[in-house]
Predict the 3D structure of the following.
Amino acid sequence: MRLYVDSTKCSGCNACRVACSLNLFDENNPKKSALVIEPHFPSPGMYTVKVCTQCGDCAKVCPTEAIKQDEKGAYYVDFAECNLCEACVPECPEGVMFIRAELADTAWKCNLCGDCVNVCGTSALWIAEIETATA
Amino acid sequence: MNGYAGKILRVNLTTGTFTKEPTPADVARDFIGGRGFGIYFLLKEVPKGADPLGPENKLIISSGPISGMMIPGGGKCDWTTKAPLTGGYAGASMGGHFTAEMRYAGLDSIILEGISPKPVYLFIDNDRIELRDASGLWGKATFEVEKQFKEKLGEEYQIATIGPGGENMVSYACINHDYGRQAGRGGVGAVMGSKKVKAIVLHGTKSIPVADMQAYRKAGMALYKACKDAEGLKEWIRYGTTTVVDWCNQVGALPTRNFSAGSFEGAEGIYGKTMREKIVITDKGCFGCPSPCGKYSRSKKYNSYVEGPEYETIGLMGSNLGIDDIEVVAQANLLCDDLGIDTISAGNSIGWAMECYQKGIFTKKDTDGLDLKFGNVEAIFTLIGKIARKEGFGVLLGEGVKRASKKIGQGTEKFAIHVKGMEQSAYATHNATAMLLAYMTCDVGAHHNRSWAITYDLQVGRDLVVPEKVARVIWLQNFRPMFDVIGGCRLQWVELSIDRDLYVPALEAITGIHRSWEDLEKVGDRIWNMTRMFWARENDGFGREWDLPPARFYEDAPTTGATKGQITKLEDVNRLLDMYYEQRGWDSNGLPTLETIENLGLEAVVA
Amino acid sequence: MTASIRLSDSLKNLLGSEGLFTIEAGHSVREAIVSLGINPDLVAVVSVGDEMQSKDYLIQEGDTVRLLAVIGGG
């Protein structure tokens, strides 16, 4: 399973990012969420949303094996084992692997909790089986 | 303090110094936040008789306890000041992402005091607070200013800025944010301009403490679920506030040619459906909103982008000026936003001038050569620029219709469509007595958002003058503004019809204080009475006369459309006021009695 | 030859009524609204499929006609 997004449906409200920070850190702080919303205004007038595809590239390079897989197949960061080495961040093809040392003493990423989907009024986000690439 | 960012920032612009004080617990308990904080500080700190554009006036910017939280619509920001447009109370509500960012920077309110000797902008990044030179930005339009800041500082920063309208202290200048959200009414932008503050630039990375994290997350999710499950969400998202254009036209509420009628023969060209098909390119929501009414549009004809138009702008810049083309409305909207003037007051003022021109009171000699016929697109665009820049004929119109019509005389006061000096927003009220009363008694002047009662008029009989209608208006005035107090948006309750009791556990989990809606409405009642006391304190002879509607609504029945031949009698207008004052506990001149003040516990506040 | 009418939560609350009705196709929306005992002025929006329609729209077999009230304005 993974999170999917249709950016054309996003209205840029950021409810998903608040819900995400509440799940990850028990905090109201969208700066500590695992989704990225890029507004493009005044023109061309659209949002681009970046979400984790659960590709696992981050886990492959983690020297402390802090990025683990749960029973749903979602990769998550075990905060206690992250040493902030930043190896994972450049590996992420979507730019949704985060380290901001001033905000948290761990890396963080999407753990597929689904709270973002639950607060999205425009149905821009959903969770589904990972589609295998067709040649 | 749970539910609060914790600090109030005071900026003394005269000396260029800052003070941060803890958000007072007793004020938070009694007035909660937002508009409540605004009127509390205004009454207490701005001295009687202060010049709205002088150093004694303050601009009070406030969030509420649901701002920036996982609560639908928690993105509203209140801007309170003594209004340059009316000389009374102004409380302008702005959507977008500003108030959430304020709270993440640790601030519940920002209070601007004094006057800066030179143009500045206020820069806030968490605890780093600076006044920076803005002489290079002075004179620039709002989109360019916001774009420059975003390119330099990044998208995480939130910007509120004035345009030339605010710099020139046009009496209905607005404040712009997020390329299309405004603190629009009453001239809050002129106050910011008088203080020489071009912009406020914000960034914060802090969290907001809550009393009960698990209960808050549960209550927040329940609110989002209710919104997502609501029948009507799909249509509301598709059309936003423009859902009502067609309907207002059918029921005679669409302002047409300076409110001379309520139905417009060219309305189809400005319908929500027409707009969605022709120009809308994306939905653009305020912070945390599951039902974004904001539509973002691209006009091919003018090769331009604008957020909106919203219903109010369609009414005032469209039918009210005889315009039947949504792209023209969008372009007029863009010019007003970019130059920083309120579309409602501007459209209303231009409508008044067009009627003066039609009646021969103005000729081309008065209008700088403009042919001010209803429907003249180029004249409208030119006038918007002249108003914002205070040039030529635009100087008079920038004063608003009350002062302009007083200067011109010749009976033009009768079709100057305002109450207390604030131009009426986009509902024609020839025959809708509850809505008429709502405009007459609104705490900022003729604005719709405190009490909106047209559907109630249609439901019970539009010309009825009965105590039930008055009670309905008062209930709405006590209840609806509470959304501005808690820092949120009323539209989820209003348009999706979600159960308002869902907010009660959410607010309790966030602040740790249980408040039922009955408790909240009591706070609303107190705030309403405080704004009334402010008007009375600031204006000699304030009273009943100030609550009368424009004569058009009791003398001048429409000759076309759904309300053809329909009018409210002056004696009914007065009966409405008699009943309203009685139910409010005010005397026959419309002032709160001593007993009412005591019952509301306001002796100390208004002393 | 039937179609259905669904009321928004705002309209349901306003009227204190049920939310779903089955009606005969072939009539205008206005006629259908009146036949259900609803004051047509209280219906602000008529929506069929994804599009807003006028109250003169002729209801087709199988349509789901959604009706919305505006109870609060802006």
